[in-house]
Design a protein that fits this description.
The complex is a heterodimer. By secondary structure, chain A is mainly beta. In chain A, 0% of the residues lie in helices and 53% in strands. By secondary structure, chain B is mostly beta strands. Classes of the chains: A mainly beta, B mainly beta. The interface between A and B is medium-sized, with 27 and 27 residues.
Amino acid sequence: KAGVTQTPRYLIKTRGQQVTLSCSPISGHRSVSWYQQTPGQGLQFLFEYFSETQRNKGNFPGRFSGRQFSNSRSEMNVSTLELGDSALYLCASSLAGYSNQPQHFGDGTRLSIL
Amino acid sequence: AQSVTQLGSHVSVSEGALVLLRCNYSSSVPPYLFWYVQYPNQGLQLLLKYTSAATLVKGINGFEAEFKKSETSFHLTKPSAHMSDAAEYFCAVSRSGGNEKLTFGTGTRLTIIP
């Protein structure tokens, strides 16, 4: 069974640009969550999608947005990039997003802002 | 709100020695607890989870953890360290019931001394 796939693995952007990251969950998983990982702030929850609806949201500015498609694939968009957005962005999927269900993580997209 | 504290950002043990990584949680309701491991340039892999069944939980790669409500702890142990255990370990908590997000600790980097 294929795991969670994130593309691309690496991205380099400049300040002010926007970026879109993609996540394909494990087949049959309907919940997709996004996390940001930085050395200073650690792992922080961005948002969670289930059945094409955002169900949970972390404490990030509106420049961070996402969406989920009918096949459960998800995209995350960051607009007007800032230097502080440099991070590893991790996507995780679970069957239905219940808190007792383990989340399965992809290998992440490493975003570098110049 | 839930939170997790991991004592010791760096832990070094000799190969063959006991591994003990500490995790204390704070939660106003019964928690679900997880341990994840992250190898360089990879995402997070689930080691084990506690979801209110047995308090002693066995995971992959010989790891186990014990949920102690009186001490609000969920420490990770392995009887005999192997070189391949060198990685970063994250403890995470979510709230029982519903579809709560994961809240992670700051991580413990485990080094194995040959």
